[in-house]
Structures are given as C-alpha cells and as structure tokens.
Amino acid sequence: MDALFPKDTVDKITVAIHYTNAEVKGLLEFTLKVYKYDVDANAWIPVETIVDEVNNKVTITFEVGGTYAVGGI
Questions:
Q1: Residue 5 domain flag
Q2: Is 62 inside any structural domain?
Q3: What is the pLDDT of residue 64?
Q4: pLDDT digits (tens, 9 = 90+) for 29-40
Q5: What is the mean pLDDT of the chain?
Q6: Is 4 a domain residue?
Q7: Distances in Å between the alpha carbon of 31 and those of 19, 21, 52, 58, 67?
Q8: Neighbours of 60 (CB within 10 A)
Q9: Residue 28 belongs to some domain of the structure
C-alpha cells in the first residue's frame, strides 16, 4: 500500500489487512504479527498487532511510514 499525505496532516494511520485461510495455512493464526523493516538495523521489528481470527484480519496503527509485512509461526 502506498499513500501520500501532506506533511503534518496525519497523526496516526490504522490499517486492517485481510487474509484468507489459505494464505495462513500451516501457521498458528494467533501468532500473526506485522513487522516493520528497520533499515539501520537491517532487521524486521514486530509492531503491536491486533489479530482478529474470526474475521481473518490483522490491524495496526502507526505514525511512521515504511516497509511492513505480516508473518507468523
């Protein structure tokens, strides 16, 4: 997802990412998390994630753009 907003016009953004059962097959759904890539650390950092197993979605609220991904075990 790409989004552009004028500087200082948005404090926080909430994003819900929907998934299918096939997309998480083999994973424990409750372990799903969103990770943000930290360029300086060259690492994926977990961010606070709400997992809704009934509606098959993960939700995050963030203040800083970047590269994000969903993962689980």
A1: no
A2: yes
A3: 81
A4: 999 999 999 999
A5: 91
A6: no
A7: 14, 14, 11, 11, 20
A8: 19
A9: yes
Amino acid in position 3 = A
What is the domain count for the chain? 1
Range of the domain at 65: 13-71
Q: Express each pLDDT in 5-38 by its tens digit.
A: 667 777 888 999 999 999 999 999 999 999 999 9
Neighbouring CB atoms inside 10 A of 34's CB total 21
Nearest to 39 by CA among 60, 64, 59, 14: 64
Burial of 19: CB neighbours in 10 Å, binned 0-12, 13-18, 19+: middle
Q: Is the model's pLDDT at 3 over the cut of 90?
A: no
